[in-house]
UniProtKB/TrEMBL annotation:
Classification via InterPro entries: Big_2, Invasin/intimin_cell_adhesion
UniProt-listed Gene3D superfamilies: 2.60.40.1080
Domain of life where this protein originates: Bacteria
Domain BIG2: 7-87, 92-172, 190-272, 277-365, 372-442
Name used for this protein in its record: BIG2 domain-containing protein
Length: 442
């Protein structure tokens, strides 16, 4: 058969699950297969996004990430569907650049450095926190905004770090700073504020992420302070008190809080836990064939793109022929169907993501009860005959209700053929004096 004319058996999207940075795009590969699993030439597809506020999909299958969240993308070719899950996350930092890369400042003077944070595409990420650090505070110090102050002649390396990516600038300090009386050291500066990163995020159930705490004394970022982590939402989040590792346990209606405490200062981040989107639905029936009046239970398996069960989702049910088969939901993943008339119907379960699956059930009419003969009435029931005289007997089969059963074959027999004979039609002929019983059987 010509591949262009072959019927579509199934379609597949690659990748089936992906993580996409906010503002980035991803093109899916659509594979069309026949019933035997052979790849067919490209066909036109209809694309759809479960939530266009999170990610939109073009007619060419290009997904654009718009807002942090999880969304399911669907492609339909000649009635066959494929699904993929896209987890839109904050764009990850791919590079940091510091300008100028080298600077000279007099002792006691200042120089302003700037850091450009960008994602993998080179787009600027202006909302990311940058941590500044000097390799030698005795030569040059740097504030949380990148302002460098010359302390004493020498060279120091200034490092800007954001989400694990770093860049450096070399600062040369010349001259000698004016001497001023210094107050005696009173120990580490007191912590003024704490910032948790990320501050607002969405996590998929089962995922883990390590949160970070930025600690400030005045406007200066400081390190080496002990951070204690906790959560006010233990039903949905688990937090390692020492490392800040957060695990998403269960979907939550309202965002939970991840807290970081440093020397009496506390900061929090909000985390909303969502379930993975349902990618496939499988429906099974306890009994795939029913008689009119019978019922059976259906069960839907709601699975994510990796084949894992999505426990928080509920299926909606529909019969494509309600005159034959009615369906009533009995739970998040179960339904009861009742056979109303002979025929066939497909009952489908649909998940909130739009993924669906079904099963076909055949309904037959109940068998018609077969009436049985309970007795045979013979008329006349008694008769006296002279030798060679005849009489015609009539046999009527009767069922249990007393109704005659027509069209039944009758077998005739005489108890003594030397006295009287009977034909197959019930004609009795007297042979000699005596008594005989003629029996009709149906």
């Amino acid at each position: 058969m010509d591949g262009a004319a072959a019927a579509v058996g199934s379609v597949r999207l690659t990748p089936a699950g992906s993580e996409l940075g906010l503002g980035n795009t991803l093109r899916f590969r659509l594979t069309v297969l026949d019933a035997a699993g052979n790849e067919l030439p490209a066909r036109d597809a209809v694309w759809a996004s479960q939530d266009t506020l999170v990610a939109a999909v073009s007619p060419e299958g290009v997904v654009a990430a718009r807002r942090i969240g999880v969304v399911q993308v669907q492609a339909v070719v000649q009635g066959k569907s494929a699904f993929a899950v896209v987890n839109v996350v904050a764009a990850r930092v791919a590079a940091v650049a510091v300008a100028p890369a080298a600077a000279s400042v007099a002792a006691g003077g200042t120089a302003q450095l700037s850091a450009r944070v960008s994602d993998a595409s080179g787009a600027a990420l202006n909302d990311r926190f940058v941590f500044w650090q000097s390799s030698n505070d005795a030569v040059a110090r740097v504030t949380s905004t990148g302002l460098v102050s010359g302390v004493a002649a020498g060279t120091a390396t200034i490092t800007a770090t954001s989400e694990g990516r770093s860049a450096t600038a070399t600062v040369t300090v010349t001259g000698t700073a004016p001497t001023t009386p210094t107050a005696p050291s009173t120990g580490p500066a007191a912590v003024d504020s704490v910032k948790v990163e990320p501050a607002d995020t969405t996590m998929v159930r089962g995922a883990s992420a390590r949160f970070r705490a930025r600690v400030f004394a005045g406007n200066q970022a400081v390190s080496g302070r002990a951070v204690t982590w906790s959560t006010s939402s233990p039903a949905t989040l688990r937090v390692d008190a020492a490392s800040g590792e957060v695990s998403a346990l269960a979907p939550s209606g309202e965002p939970g809080l991840v807290n970081a405490a440093v020397e009496g200062r506390v900061a929090s981040a909000t985390v909303k836990v969502v379930d993975r989107a349902v990618a496939t639905v499988g429906v099974t029936a306890e009994r795939p064939a029913l008689q009119v009046g019978e019922s059976t239970t259906l069960r839907a398996a709601l699975l994510d793109a990796d084949g894992g069960a999505v426990g928080s989702a509920s299926a909606s049910w529909r019969s494509d022929n309600p005159a034959v088969l009615s369906v009533t939901s009995t739970g998040p993943e179960t339904a009861r169907v009742t056979a109303l008339a002979a025929g066939a119907a497909t009952v489908a379960a649909t998940a909130p993501s739009g993924a669906s699956g079904g099963t076909r059930i055949t309904v037959t009419a109940p068998p018609v009860p077969v009436a049985t003969t309970t007795r045979v009435d013979v008329t006349p029931s008694a008769r006296s005959l002279a030798a060679r005289e005849t009489v015609q007997l009539t046999a009527t089969p009767v069922d249990a209700s007393g109704a005659p059963r027509s069209g039944r074959a009758i077998a005739w027999a005489s108890s003594d053929a030397s006295v009287a004979t009977v034909s197959d039609a019930g004609l009795v002929t007297a042979v000699r004096a005596g008594s005989a019983t003629v029996t009709a059987t149906a």
